[in-house]
Amino acid sequence: MMAVYEATATAPVNIACIKYWGKRDTKLILPVNSSLSVTLNQDDLCATTTARADLAFERDRLWLNNKEEEIKAGGRLATCIAGMRSLRREFEKTDNSLPKIAEYHVHIASKNNFPTAAGLASSAAGFAALVSALAQLYKLPTTPSELSIIARQGSGSACRSLFGGYVAWEMGTKDDGSDSRAVQVAGREHWPEIHALICVVSDIKKGTSSTSGMQRTVETSPLLQHRTSNIVPERMTAISKAIKERDFPTFAQLTMADSNQFHAVCLDTEPPIFYMNDVSRAIIATIVEYNRAAVAAGGEVKAAYTYDAGPNAVIYTLKENVKEIIELVSHYLPHAVPFKDAYGLFAGTQPVGRLPA
Ligand code: DP6
């Protein structure tokens, strides 16, 4: 009987606290600054990808959520597949008994377990699952950091989804990108109390994609230079320290400040890019007031909002505050009820809220 070469892998979504925005090399996807994110619960929000290699396949093919996608020559998908194939080729050279499957074409099928209504960028989980599935198919002895270098060339933020927990993407200094990779700052078990509430403000597809938006920012925003040189390096150090020390108020303040500055460089872009809407801003005001009241009562900052290239909020908080925040958001912003307590990261949480019909 012929051997079947097939493997399946999953990768979760990640949400950045220190944002990646801008490339210094658009082909290799090398960023202008380092970034840091939290990887969400695998069970709640992830991409699952199956890859198969077969001598009988005539070309590489890929299906995303049951729909075939074109693998454009020189495009991001082709680059990732070629990168993984070349690792397999190197591996085959080390051991003559390995079957020469790097020469076979592959068929790849990927699907997301989260509804598009979540408004979450799926490319990060998608590319991370793609390289993981191929790494398993090829039985590569690679580390997640090594794989992150290839996932990065599919979508920058994908490199961070190769790890669970708290993950940094180190921008690196080399021109070939060999040191621009993800590393784990702390595992999921280190700080399991943190939860992420995803508040769906709108599920309409965003106007400006991350890829084109960030390129415009690089070309036109004078503020970006200040951010990358003077702000992000210190924030990366400070937030890593806050995570290691489980210092929520510092983690929260840095996360909110960086979301604000990311949206400020979008506004500083020519023409300006607006990702947040009035409901997004109302959620910010609600969280600011919630934190102000907590501090006024002698306590500490209890929640942090963050927004990516769209209007939906992610609120980081400690488990003990989840119920209170959901009530607060539902009360003031009934159209932005937290859709899912997605972090649960560690604890296998149940969905805690639903978007009203
Ligand atoms: C705002 O990783 O989607 O979510 O590298 O062009 O594919 P490409 O961009 P992408 O950008 C993500 C931008 C962000 C911030 C972040 O996740 O760090």
TrEMBL record:
It comes from the Eukaryota. The keyword Hydrolase does not apply. This is Diphosphomevalonate decarboxylase. Its EC number is 4.1.1.33. It holds the Pfam family MDD_C. It comes from Phellinidium pouzarii. It catalyses: (R)-5-diphosphomevalonate + ATP = isopentenyl diphosphate + ADP + phosphate + CO2. Transmembrane segments: none annotated. Residues 196-357 form the Mvd1 C-terminal domain. GO terms for cellular component: cytosol.
